Automatic annotation (TrEMBL):
GO terms for cellular component: phosphopantothenoylcysteine decarboxylase complex. Residues 10-225 form the DNA/pantothenate metabolism flavoprotein C-terminal domain. CTP binds at D103, K113, P131, D132, I133, L134, F150, K168, K172. Keywords: Decarboxylase, Flavoprotein, FMN, Ligase, Lyase, Magnesium, Metal-binding, Multifunctional enzyme. This is Coenzyme A biosynthesis bifunctional protein CoaBC.
């Protein structure tokens, strides 16, 4: 697609992308999960590959086919995703956290199936916070690695949505933050997306809408434009 920069503008770049949604086990047969399909992250992985990058895809419970030509590392929980990202990020030029990470996991995983007659009619789950993987990557030394975060927000007001996203980008020290509004029907399994990309000065670098594939190309256009020139 000639609208999207030079064909091989990511040649030789190491791009690490997380996609999908984590699952936090409760017992051998149940988990806490979310509605992320992995479509947007996989579209970025495929597009980066097509533009010449070496792509590591850290895949959390994808509901769609895996892309060809990527080094795929399967994870399920947030803690597994964190380990895989820390390893992969070490020599990455770009890290994209597109995965929907569970903010909480059950405090204890039952080794046997939780029985419905164990309590007095109701069930209370105790949850503990998962680490913020993107914020950890942002705090760790990462010279030469561009950090791209996502933000999923249900805020209906566009200005307040941007304020939330700016605060999120700063808190996590991401270089770029891709914000999209999600809801009961928008965002997750859809083929279309509408996002704003916020830069490290808090300004909206670009607004993108269309198929998740074209949004992926637009995000990579921004990434390619802010990457330092490759050594020759
Ligand atoms: N993220 C992460 N680790 C977590 C939670 C989120 O790395 N434990 C990343 C996501 O992959 C995304 C970004 O942080 O790139 C924003 O995720 P989001 O859920 O929108 O923000 P949170 O910081 O979790 O805040 P909240 O859910 O309360 O809005
Ligand atoms: Ca969250």
């Amino acid at each position: 697609d000639p609208a999207h920069g030079a064909a091989l503008d990511l040649a030789g770049r190491r791009v690490v992308i997380s996609a999908g949604g984590t699952r936090e086990p409760l017992d051998p047969v149940r988990f806490l999960g979310n509605r992320s399909s992995g479509k947007q992250g996989v579209a970025i992985a495929e597009a980066a590959r097509a533009r010449g990058a070496d792509v590591v895809l850290v895949a959390a419970n994808l509901e769609i086919a895996e892309p060809a030509g990527c080094d795929i590392r399967h994870v399920s929980t947030a803690l597994e995703l964190r380990d895989a990202m820390q390893v992969a990020a070490r020599d990455a030029d770009v890290v994209v956290m597109a995965a929907a990470v569970a903010d909480y996991r059950p405090a204890a995983v039952s080794q046997g199936k939780i029985k419905k007659d164990a309590g007095d009619g109701g069930l209370t789950l105790e949850l503990v916070r998962n680490p913020d993987i993107l914020a950890e990557l942002g705090r760790a030394p990462h010279d030469g690695t561009l950090l791209v975060g996502f933000a999923a927000e249900t805020e209906p007001d566009p200005e307040r949505l941007l304020e939330l996203a700016r605060a999120k980008r700063e808190a996590k020290r991401a270089d770029l933050l891709v914000v999209n509004r999600v809801g009961w029907s928008e965002g997750f399994a859809a083929d279309e997306n509408r996002v704003s990309v916020i830069g490290d000065d808090g300004r909206v670098v670009t607004e993108l809408h269309g198929s998740k594939v074209s949004v992926a190309q637009g995000i990579l256009d921004v990434v390619a434009s802010v990457l330092p020139a490759a050594e020759r």
